[in-house]
Amino acid sequence: MSSxxxxxxxxxxxxxxxxxxxxxxVDKVTGRxxxxxxxxxxxxxxxxxxRSPHAHARIKSIDTRAxxxxxxxxxxxxxxDFPDPQNKVAASGEGTxxxxxxxHNCIARDKVLYFGHAVAAVAATTPNIAEEALKLITxxxxxxxxxxxxxxxxxxxxxxxxxxxxxxxxxxxxxTPSNIANHTxxxxxxxxxxxxxxxxxxxxxxxxxxxxxxxxxxxNGTALWNADGQISVWCSTQxxxxxxxxxxxILGMPVSKIKVTPTEIGGGFGGKLSVFLEPLAAMLSKxxxxxxxxxxxxxxxxxxATAPTSGSYIRVKIGADKNGCIVAAQAWMVYEAGAFPGxxxxxxxxxxxxxxxxxxxxxxxxxxxxxxxxxxxxxAPGATNAAFASxxxxxxxxxxxxxxxxxxxxxxxxxxxxRRADGPVYKRIGFIETAQAAKAHPHYSAPLAPSRLDPExxxxxxxxxxxxxxxxxxxWGGKSSAWASLNPDGTVSxxxxxxxxxxxxxxxxxxxxxxxxxxAEDVKPAVVDTDSVxxxxxxxxxxxxxxxxxVAWRLGEKLKQQLKARAAxxxxxxxxxxxxxxxxxxxxxxxxxxxxxxxxxxxTGGPIVASDTFESDEYGPGFGVHIVDLExxxxxxxxxxxxxxxxQDVGTAIHxxxxxxxxxxxxxxxxxxxxxxxxxxDAQGHLLNASFLDYRIxxxxxxxxxxxxxxxxxxxxxxxxxxxxxxxxxxPPAGAVANAIYHAIGARMTALPMSPAxxxxxxxxx
Amino acid sequence: xxxxxxxxxxxGMTGGQSEIEVAGETVGALIDQLEARYPGIRERLVExxxxxxxxxxVVDGTRxxxxxxxxxxxxxxxxxxxxxxxx
Amino acid sequence: MNKIxxxxxxxxxxxxxxxxxxxxxxxxLREELGLTGTxxxxxxxxxxxxxxxxxxxxxxxxLVLAVEAxxxxxxxxxxxxxxxxxxxxxxxxxxxxxxxxGICTPGFIVAAKALLDHNPQPTxxxxxxxxxxxxxxxxxYDKIIRAVLDAAETLRNT
Lengths: 766, 87, 158
Ligand code: FES
Ligand code: FES
Description:
The structure holds three protein chains of three kinds. Chain A is α+β, with helices and mostly antiparallel strands. Chain A has three domains: 1-6 and 430-475 and 620-766, Aldehyde Oxidoreductase, domain 4; 40-146 and 213-305, Aldehyde Oxidoreductase, domain 3, CATH 3.90.1170; 477-615, Aldehyde Oxidoreductase, domain 4. The longest helix of chain A is centred in the last third of the chain and has 28 residues, at 544-571. Chain C folds into two domains: 4-79, Beta-grasp domain (Ubiquitin-like (UB roll), Roll); 88-156, Orthogonal Bundle (DNA polymerase, domain 1), CATH 1.10.150.120. Helices cover 33% and strands 16% of the residues of chain C. Chain C is α+β, with helices and mostly antiparallel strands. Bound molecules: FE2/S2 (inorganic) cluster (2 copies). One FE2/S2 (inorganic) cluster binds at residues 99-104, 136-139 of chain C.
């Protein structure tokens, strides 16, 4: 349950802040909602992908003749069936993607770069036949040396993944090829001098493993390349418009020929921002005589060959003066990009010291390719790795200075006017308020939560501890378009293009309802295909309730203006004389309800519709501060979370239940990352744990209730004060858990996951 | 004059200077002025007439979508930062 | 391959279908019978998205062969709501916002139904233990557990 900490008087909203049942709810609790794998088309074929068993190899030849001859097989494709796009950079989520890399990631050309890299695909009348056909494809590989570790990959003698990759340093390309794709540096002041003068300095190095978003619905895509050259794609995606652009480039077709219909989506967390199967399904459809082809990954494929997020190596050094003021901070960060450049290391560098006011800063960030799947975005991409490192060091500094860890964070916390470590000055932010809310929460002053493993308190091997950590995320505004039409019964149909991944139909409809003056239930939202609504950026970057919600607010205002004009017509006054309040229009003692007015559309000039498109830059970042109590079984190394509280400046919570849900979900993912989750590769680069049995995400039994504190500091840049909330909550947990483990067992954990084996090792028991 | 923060990796071109006052009404104009003083610096920021795709410009604390056309004022503070990616 | 005829009772209706000997119940429900409310998250018994109730027992339909359904009674998510509307578990999932993306929801609701059929008054710990076979990546389980405990109370009072 949530305790709200109202920091300012909220306007008297009627809809905003309530908890209506989501419009798509009944379909989702009865099994009627159509997810990607539920799409049915007549004459449907089933596609399967042949994947590389090697981490790095040259493809000498592919023989598909036997597969093509198998009865029931309708088409086989390899990399040679696709055009080779230029190096071109396109928008993807909050960032960018190189379309040539993406094309080569969807299906290998001359080289496979990781275990699971697609090399061929088959469409057949049944999934079984397609599966059989894969076994009949012969691929001749020439094995190449591979590299899995980022720091090894940086060495000049490391095996190269791409002969043409040169290190980019702010627009300067190195002379010789390298696995280091990019180097970024942020520098302010003089860290060396500041460290020399500091009273306390802590320096440590940290490692984290590649982890996966772990959405429960595997990637899928159904495509029909019609005989008239029109391509229709149905898929589970966070970004239908980005995917349309990607498909256009990968297939060599204009966007006007491509329509992407987003189905319901079973989780994404950044992992469904780009295409994997869709181009293969489209090309198979074309080759199979324009029959629709459906493809879906199995769990092993999802884990081995989609877009997990980077493992990393991070060195952090922070110094403070004797009063506890941080004087300098330095970080050296290397992130695995996987097989193609583009790890979220720059985001990591942007967030690593973001909650704090620090006069001297030096951050070096390296994006390095290795023979693993192409790294993608995962909820506040790059930030959890970074905060694990920095928040561990912050905790240690506070301890050395003898200052309460939350007090230390408040003392050094950034506020409006302070400079971010990467340069720019903060506008209105709510970090201090959030840290204060966490400090004031009963959890922080309560005794440690009771043990679950040892309720009687008799086992000396069970040790308990409490930890805290902070986190930051940029958030994003992005472009949104939508339209709305008023129905004769006073309800509104709202047509939007933001896939609803966690209840956004509700939070967007509510903003239109608030501005127009109708009930939430009176707005009927629909998420439609790319031909049926204007451009929308991805559902990602915590932007939809902010950005698409903003458009919904404007649509409500536009409808209201038109209704005022209709009322003015009835009363023979001018529209500006008409007042609108909570769905009632009035002027000089006369009044008419919105419903009545909607019933008079025909006699006052016909239908009323509104459309709009908008992008705001005023999204503002979000901060979270988390508190965790946990226990460690020092004999087995097992950690059990006992109590968890997450405080966050959420702006205005439109639908508080879904805001709490975002915090709770982010925390759960962060705890999984902290304690269990990691990709395990053998020396040959084969992924060893490509199942939910071995890649263990938290279950209901692993977690307690997750208490949330919604610190509502309204965002001045949004009509209802909305701020993105989805990503920040995954940032603090790893640091908070590491600090709690330290306070339980007295050992600093410097690698994720903090698995039982590592905990035993940290205690010298391995 | 607007104050431009020179990215750390370009300070080799400005003799180590990290902040430079430059006249101009848009980000593009500021870069032209910088180029006049520090030849070669434009190329590091601009490609094919646009900001490089992995660089974003932040003016007065807000990341701009207008790139080189972003207006700046006399008091503006301008940063070139990596275009981050999110999920 | 020769197809085998199977007779079963699905959501209260007698159904006859043909299946291959190696087809799973999940595949047949989804592909042959069009009951796509039962979801596939892993196909190897680790996520619970495919939960159905088979003769009163909660099973992962991806681990059950379709031929094993012969003569059995099966409840899928499509059979949970009654003629008068949503089942209290479904209603409580909506009221508590116990779903975000909703892909795990059918499995959780079927599993919760099986739990409450067995144990009308579960403790939080018992509910967590029972539902530990169902993975949800969105919610952190908090609201799911609350919805199930609240539904149990509603059911006890009706
Ligand atoms: S699909 Fe059956 S348990 Fe996951
Ligand atoms: S609501 Fe998305 S997996 Fe449970």
